Every structure is written in C-alpha cells, then in structure tokens.
Amino acid sequence: MRTLPNTPSSRSAGPISLRRLATLAAALLLTITLSACGSLWPTEVPYNPGVGTNDRTGDVNVLNAVIVSATPGQGSFVATLVNRNEQAADQLLSVEAAGLTMGGGATPEIAAGGVVNLASAFNGIPVTGDAKLLKAGTFVRVRLNFKNADQVTVNVPVVTNAGPYSELIPSPSPSA
Asked: What is the DSSP string of 105-156?
C-alpha cells in the first residue's frame, strides 16, 4: 500500500481570508439572482390592474368589462374590444344578460387588428332591469355575440360612476 508523503498544505486551517469571503458572497448572490430567471412570476403574464373583467380566449379580447351604474336598475356596459384577427374585421352584434335589457343599437365594427372602447365610442351600452340584479357590488353574467368570433361570456362587476368612471354618464335606457 502506498501512502502520500506528509507535506504541509498550501492552505492554512486558520481564518478565511477577506478575499475568499468576498468571492463566496459574490457567488452566493449570483446564484440567488440567476435562480429566479425563467420562472413564471406574476409580472410575466398579462395583468390588467383594473376592476373590470378580462377575457382573452377568443379572436376578440374583452378587456376591463364593467357595468357603470349611478342608480340601481340602470347603467352602461363598457369594455374595450380587441380584434386579434389581423386579416378580417369583426362586429359586435349584441350584448345580453338574463333579466336585463341591454341595447341601444350600438353594434360597432372592429377593424382587423383594431380596438374599440365602448365607453369612449358610445358612452357605453345602456342596461336596465331589476334593481336587485343591477346595483353596485353585484356581478352580472354578460354574453357578447360577434359576427365572426365565438361568443364570449364574462361575469361583469357593477360599479358606481365614481373614480375612473366618474365622467361616464349612464346611457339613456334602451327601448324594450
């Protein structure tokens, strides 16, 4: 059996040098920093910090959908509609909700790759109905029908016309 000669080590068993400590600290910090890369943090996914509901599943995205109501039983449906189809225009044909009347004749065309904001283009789509269903703090299941895109159904919050919606004047009541 062969043994290695007993030679003194080039490294002392004494305290760690300041240089070595700084190198270890830098390596640890670099490891922690790089280990976060590639993970799905909430900032890496679409996030719209508004009160409205978003649906990005179809050819037309429905963004920040809300019903703005100054008086229980009356309000305006507002949302931003984004046509993700770059080749063909689409059109909102109707907006429906059980127990409510929605209308007013607003059936905007959405250009190919275009955007329509119902609040600025039409001052919203008028909504009327049961004051228990249509008052601030409730949610309404709304169905949007398009000419080409699939139907979109979203649960929409009813909010008061305050804060970001303070300048939105509720639309006149739709005719039945």
From this structure: S---EE-TT-EEEHHHHHS-EEEEE-TTTSSTT-EEEEEEEESSSPPEEEEE
Phi, psi of 96, rounded to the nearest 5 degrees = -135, 150
Residue 58 contacts by C-beta under 8 Å, 6 or more apart in sequence?
A: 84, 149, 150, 152
Please name the residues in contact with 116: beta carbons below 8 A apart, sequence gap of 6 or more.
80, 81, 92, 108, 109, 110
Could you tell me which of 61, 64, 65 has the C-alpha nearest to residue 146? 61
pLDDT by residue for the chain (176 residues), tens only, comes to: 555 555 555 555 556 788 888 888 888 777 776 666 555 555 566 666 678 999 999 999 999 999 999 899 999 999 999 999 999 999 999 999 999 999 877 789 999 999 999 998 888 899 999 999 999 999 999 999 999 999 999 999 999 988 888 777 655 544 44
Cut 0.85: pTM above it:
no
